Every structure is written in structure tokens, then in C-alpha cells.
Amino acid sequence: MAEPPPRLATVHLTAVYGKFTAVKDVSLGFRANTVNALIGPSGCGKSTFLRTLNRMHELSDGGWITGKVLLDGEDIYGSRVSPMQLRRRIGMVFQKPTPFPTMSIYDNVAAGLRLNGRRPRGELDEIVERSLRDAALWEEVKDRLQASALALSGGQQQRLCIARSIAPRPQVVLLDEPTASLDPGGTQRIEELVFELKKDYTIVIVTHNMQQAARVSDTTSFFYMGAMIESGPTRQIFTAPREERTEAYITGRFG
User: At what angle do helices 154-166 and 184-197 cross, to 10 degrees?
Assistant: First the structure.
């Protein structure tokens, strides 16, 4: 039986994003309900590539791309695609937790849902609870939903940002080093959460942690100096890489 087409795919993508490293001629596909790790040294283009996947480069002066990014076969850079609506279909969570500081826990999760106008309170309540449960945070915050999001710990804030990202029910979730600023306990919770979330979403995660990539991902892609050097099943990349540079990076000879 033929494999289904990728949920998200890039075709000959070349991008420049402000201060970030340019990426050149990258073609990759990410299938539905998989976790896909992007690895490589700092400044090799991983974050530039990730930001092109939901048009975040448009927030930077001088950002541009050539090529295509296809979501279920549709080019997200097409003239009829609204960047705001697209980001409801492709959510993103950043390296440092970014809760909206003037909003409550409840309003942080509901923020994206209110962009298209008013919703019945009961519907909002249901979606906020579902999103917090899916982010493994509901039991910790259910009695203080109106408290400031800044009252949460760093790990809780990151899970809140994940809840906010998945509240609109996107097809893809992008994670840019989501555990880089967390302690080991917070890191473990996020990794366990990623494993659960792939049942409903396609996930692309940037990480500098080789052990993390090996634990959570189905595929791994190695970036170096703005180029995608090698991509494949995570087990193959970590045990039998085809490219010498991939092996050198994974075994710690550079990076």
C-alpha cells in the first residue's frame, strides 16, 4: 500500500529571515501524526526553516523565501492564504515561554479563539478545558483560571503556551527548542506531552539535545551551514547515518 502524502512539505525552499541563518534549497516532508526533529549546531538554519513553515518570517525586516511550503497540497504562500488564518492551522511555541502577561490563564488559552469574533461562553469554557487537559495542565490550574499566567512556573507557562497553540485545533504544531529554558522535570513533562500530542497533530521540533531527538521523534533531519544534510527515520539517523557530517555531529566531533 502506498504511503499517504505528507501533511506538510517544503519544495526547494530557500529562505532568508532577518538576523537568522539563511537556508538553501531544502525539500522535506512531514507526515500526519508524527514527530519530526530538526537538529544541528547553533546558527545552522533550523529556526529559520521552522519559521517559514507558518510564515513567521513576515514579522522580520528583509525576510523572504523562494520555493513552496505545502499544507495538505496547498501552498501556504499563495495569494489567497491569510497569514493570520494560517497560524490557526500551524501553531508555534517558542524557546522561552511567552504567555500574554496581562491576561489570565483562561484568557491566554482563549486568545486565538476570539480573533474571529465572539463565541458563546460555554463553548469557550469547553475548548479551554479540553486544551488545558491536552496540555497536561488542567489539574494544576483548574481552580485558578482567572489568575495571572505569570504566576505559573516556567514549565507550566510552556505547557500553557502549548495549550494556547492547540486550542484552535491546528493541523501542525511547531516547537522551537521548547525545553531549552526548563529544568529536567519540566523537560520530561514536555517530552511526554509531545508523545501524546502526535496522536492528533503533526509536530516539528527544533532541539539541540540529541537524546531528546532520539526519545521523542519519528524522523530526524540534520541541518548544517544553512543546508539540510540528511533526513530519515530517527533510528537510522542515530545508528547508521549515511553522511559523514551527520555521524560527526551525532558523535560529538563538532557542534
Answer: 20
